[in-house]
Specification:
The complex is a heterodimer. Chain A is an all-alpha fold. Chain A has helices spanning about 5-25, 30-45, 55-70, 70-75, 80-90, 95-105, 115-125, 130-140, 145-155, 155-180, 190-200, 205-210, 210-215, 220-235, 245-265. In chain A, helix 6 (about 95-105) packs antiparallel against helix 15 (about 245-265). Chain B has an eight-stranded antiparallel sheet, covered by helices on one side. Classes of the chains: A mainly alpha, B alpha+beta.
């Protein structure tokens, strides 16, 4: 493959690559650095690329290996990340001032519940063991086959299936216990509360009902609701969406809060 | 009783002597041994798939101590030590009263035989033997839960 052709194809994949690494590290800087390093490494090793796998699989393999060595990717958060970060945000006036400023001035500062749903999944998925988180994203969001994931993560098909099944089941259980969107007894209403703050003139319930995940919630099929949640993630590029500036600001906040929280709990 | 002599039908058997009691179960599982092993050694995940274990705290690795809560006695926490840990083959944990031995044997036809044996006893055993409930039902449930979960994972796409 020539460098020109590689560059051309890389352009078509880089958006997915960057969002994948962002969702694993929760860090804009690290996502940009890892994607940059992936490009450099790929160029360096381009002569070894024989086309045994697709270029997308090959690039995700390089990026995943870099991510596995990344400290922020390795850090595991807790299932109640949204409770911890909400409390921190409520005590941080600057956070809301900055967020409101983004909301008012940025073309990517809109608040949409479905963008927050995707953001929320990213945060909570960091409570899974890293291998499970990687498998869930690779399969459910970036639509790799199990056989391709074995290549990307350099593991066996049996283990990929194990990580996928366990990761998926854990995420379903967490949302079943927490998310008020899909279960009335859920303890977390954050996407609705934030809609009230950022879109005060909107009827939050009406807005939420535009989302298939919420529409289907009463039917209660947990697997199906998880698939609908994954559909939301597939449709959103966290760097380019209408709400990207607002959600990235929020993600940076949550990462900083969780890093401090984890430091304290280790001490 | 050895794995080879146990019926692989998921039915538990108990052999009692004056000073010991040994319960065993064996079942054929159509799954890769790596999956069975991963399920057996991921402590925090047990309650999700295993209806006989309510919680396991700690790391299941050689020499580590774990705290296990079971449906057999919900008020009691069993403090156990991992005594043997041979990946995809054998896991043993136990305390002063006895050991629980898990073995995974490849059959060569895409299946494995999973066996579980627990031998409890000692010189004082006759004094408290009657207070210890039968393990048969929970052994059968453990084995069938493991089979179900392993085969579900193995057949997933």
């Amino acid at each position: 493959m020539t460098i020109e052709l590689f560059n051309q194809e890389f352009e078509g994949i880089v958006g997915q690559l960057k969002s994948y690494i962002l969702r694993i590290t929760a860090s804009i800087t690290d996502a940009e650095d890892i994607v940059h390093d992936t490009y450099l490494k790929a160029i360096d090793k381009l002569h070894t690329f024989r086309g045994d796998s697709s270029l997308k699989t090959w690039l995700f393999t390089i990026a995943s290996n870099l991510a596995k060595d990344n400290l922020r990717a390795q850090k595991r958060w807790t299932e109640n990340v949204t409770d911890i970060t909400k409390e921190a945000a409520l005590n941080n006036r600057q956070f809301f001032q900055e967020a409101m400023n983004i909301r008012m001035t940025s073309p990517h500062g809109q608040y949409e519940a479905k963008e927050h749903i995707a953001f929320c999944f990213t945060c909570i998925s960091k409570s899974l063991p890293l291998e499970q988180q990687l498998c869930v994203f690779l399969k459910e969001v970036y639509e790799f086959k199990v056989s391709e994931i074995t290549t990307i993560l350099e593991t066996t098909e049996a283990m990929v299936k194990y990580y996928l099944h366990t990761g998926r089941s854990k995420m379903i259980n967490i949302f079943e216990g927490r998310c008020a969107l899909i279960k009335k007894e859920g303890v977390c209403h954050q996407c609705s509360e934030l809609n009230g703050i950022f879109n005060p003139k909107q009827n939050t319930q009406e807005e939420l009902m535009k989302t298939d995940l919420v529409k289907e919630a009463e039917k209660g099929n947990k697997e199906h609701l998880f698939d609908l949640r994954m559909q939301i993630l597939k449709e959103i590029d966290p760097f380019k969406s209408k709400a990207s500036a607002l959600q990235l600001h929020h993600l940076e906040h949550n990462r900083q809060v969780m890093e401090k929280y984890l430091e304290k709990t280790v001490d | 009783m050895t794995t080879a002599t146990m019926a692989q039908n998921g039915k538990a058997t108990t052999v009692k002597t004056t000073f010991h009691r040994e319960t065993s179960v064996s079942i054929e599982i159509k799954a890769d041994p790596a999956i069975v092993w991963a399920l057996l050694t991921n402590a925090s995940d047990y309650p999700r798939w295993n209806s006989t274990v309510t919680s396991i705290e700690g790391k299941i690795a050689l020499g580590e101590k774990i705290k296990l809560k079971s449906i057999l006695d919900t008020k009691r926490t069993f403090k156990l030590k991992v005594k043997e840990f041979e990946a995809e083959k054998k896991l043993v944990w136990g305390d002063g009263q006895g050991n629980r031995i898990y073995t995974i044997t490849k059959n060569g036809s895409g299946t494995v035989t999973f066996s579980m044996i627990e031998k409890i006893g000692g010189l004082m055993f006759p004094m408290y033997a009657k207070m210890i409930p039968s393990f048969d039902q929970s052994f059968e449930k453990f084995a069938s839960d493991l089979k179900k979960e392993s085969e579900t994972i193995m057949s997933s796409k």
